[in-house]
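Mods, move this if it's the wrong board.
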Amino acid sequence: MKKGIHPEYRTVAFHDLGADKFIFVRSTVQVERTMDIDGTTYPYMTLDVSSYSHPFYTGKQKTSTQDGRVAQFNKRFGNKGLKRSK
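Not the wrong board. Structure tokens:
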């Protein structure tokens, strides 16, 4: 591998603002902000959503009460006029 052409691979602190949780992952993301956490300085990046705050992962997912378009069609028309042959 050529030297000096690859981005730095280091531990980055990703901060989920919705859940106020930190995720420490090794990454090559380029950021300008740093944060001191437990005496160690990490590159710092904010996230809007992660597995800590996304409704699918937290179990607080809302289900839609509306049927899909196919279900609405079948509910409205059903099997009217359809004759199946054996």
